[in-house]
Design brief:
The chain is an all-alpha fold. Helices cover about 60% and strands about 0% of the residues. The protein contains 10 helices and no strands. The longest helix has 26 residues.
């Protein structure tokens, strides 16, 4: 087994050959991949909606070291110059804490906000909305008023989630009520 020095993130960035560290970061389940909240970020559902949506997007599309540092700075209130002085091990563990929190939020969203499109919705092209990412949620919360998007992004994630879940439930009720009141021909009550 290779012994690696407990270097700072800055020292890692300055290495000419990062191969051994990259291997350890990728495959060392116990050492580098244990999630730890070293910056006391806490429950991500208590953070701003816009931050969580940005994190979801970047985790899905590949989070670079620079983006990670920007998020840690935003979450911790520390300057990036301070953050790179932390141990690589600590930063990796916090990254995994971020990953776990985003996965948890994704699972909550799937459970509460997920929707299996009807054949008619698929045929009409509902998948076209995927290219907008979280913009649809933000727009819905802004009540289709684009001038309120910045304000919506600053609202606590849990509040926005509850509103989106309420809107989904209300919409499902309205649809079910309409189908009861005005059944399609050839369908039974």
């Amino acid at each position: 087994m290779i012994e690696l020095d407990d270097i700072t993130l800055k020292e890692y960035f300055e290495l000419e050959d990062k191969e051994a560290y990259d291997f350890a970061i990728k495959y060392s389940k116990e050492l580098y991949n244990s999630p730890i909240d070293i910056f006391n970020a806490g429950d991500f559902t208590e953070m701003e909606f816009g931050l969580i949506k940005d994190l979801q997007y970047d985790f899905e599309n590949g989070l670079t070291w620079m983006k990670l540092l920007e998020y840690i700075s935003q979450i911790s209130g520390k300057d990036i110059k301070q953050i790179v002085q932390f141990r690589l091990l600590s930063i990796c563990r916090f990254r995994n804490y971020l990953t776990d929190e985003i996965k948890r939020i994704n699972e909550i969203e799937i459970k509460l906000l997920g929707h299996d499109p009807s054949p008619e919705e698929v045929q009409a092209g509902i998948s076209e909305f995927n290219k907008f990412g979280s913009y649809g949620q933000i727009r819905k919360l802004a009540m289709d008023d684009v001038t309120k998007i910045k304000e919506v992004k600053k609202i606590k994630y849990s509040t926005c989630l509850m509103e989106l879940y309420y809107q989904k439930t209300a919409n499902e009720f309205q649809e079910a009520y309409y189908n009861i009141k005005y059944p399609k021909p050839n369908s039974q009550r």
